[in-house]
Design a protein that fits this description.
membrane, transport, globular, MetI-like_sf, MetI-like, about 0% strand, MetI-like fold, two-stranded antiparallel ribbon, mainly alpha
Length: about 290
């Protein structure tokens, strides 16, 4: 009998053990190494010295590096707001389509993921470059007389960010909107609420978890997508991801790159913590 009781537990451990090993080796191990590396000292030429130092974190406080963090956060906020303005109506109305058209629109939203992100970004270069597709359309329509200098600018990077991350916002809003009980909205309308009142008091509150999920899915990656800033910004827009890349492969200051990564991880973790707190409060309000 004892063997029969302990047998299922051993089987459970056999299934859980690979997951723990994977987490320790590929997630916890690299994170611990990165934190330890951030407190080491850079050698004069190559590598690091196992000598405790907080110089890398003090270096982040310099204005030039703090401005990079601020610029990255500003761009992330701008990207998130733009994707929310575009993605919320798109996801909301997509959820109200019939099943046939819903699948078609879902397919169109997901299709860009089938192509490599670098290829799609180079496609935007063809559109934005001087005398490119966009300039040709604008000048032919009489909206502009001279070519725009949109490529290698902040707006180009912002458009590239929005384009790359918009599907995440759309799918998050769509997921929460599709689960809505539309009879509640109809009841509010029957009781005299206007369309706007019903939307603000019911629809917006019900879809808030989807909005928050979309914000997290957009905001956090937008701080590290350095290749978009490289391709569409031409080196004129510097993000934290670009700074980390330069420290790793150009100046080879690995402790400083690790310190930047740790700070970036703390910032993103803070936003995730805020998201979990807000959603937890909303769940408690729903229960009460």
């Amino acid at each position: 009998m004892k063997n029969n009781i302990h047998k299922p537990k051993s089987k459970i451990w056999m299934t859980i053990l690979p997951m723990y090993l994977f987490t320790i080796i590929f997630i916890a191990g690299p994170l611990i190494y990165m934190v330890a590396l951030s407190f080491m000292t850079k050698k004069d030429v190559w590598g690091v010295v196992a000598q405790f130092s907080t110089a890398s974190y003090q270096k982040i406080l310099k204005p030039v590096y703090m401005n990079t963090f601020i610029q990255s956060i500003k761009l992330s906020f701008a990207t998130t707001i733009a994707t929310l303005i575009i993605g919320y109506p798109f996801g909301y109305f997509m959820a109200k389509l019939s099943e046939r058209y819903k699948k078609l629109v879902m397919f169109l939203v997901v299709v860009p993921f089938w192509t490599n992100a670098l290829v799609r970004m180079y496609g935007w270069i063809i559109i934005f470059r001087s005398n490119g597709v966009l300039d040709h359309i604008l000048m032919k329509s009489g909206l502009t007389r001279t070519p725009l200098k949109l490529l290698y600018s902040y707006p180009a990077v912002l458009i590239g960010m929005v384009y790359s991350l918009l599907p995440f916002m759309i799918l998050a809003v769509f997921s929460s909107t599709e689960k809505m009980d539309w009879s509640i909205v109809e009841a509010a309308r029957d009781l005299g609420a206007s369309r706007l009142q019903a939307f603000l008091t019911i629809t917006l509150k019900v879809t808030l978890p989807g909005i928050l999920s979309g914000i997290i899915l957009v905001f956090i990656p937008s701080m590290g997508l350095f290749f978009i800033a490289d391709i569409l910004g031409g080196g004129k827009v510097m993000l934290v991801g670009n700074l980390i890349r330069d420290q790793l492969f150009t100046t080879r200051d690995w402790p400083f790159a690790a310190a930047l990564s740790v700070v970036l991880m703390i910032v993103t973790s803070l936003f995730i913590w805020i998201y979990r707190k807000i959603t937890h409060v909303k769940e408690l309000e729903g229960i009460l």
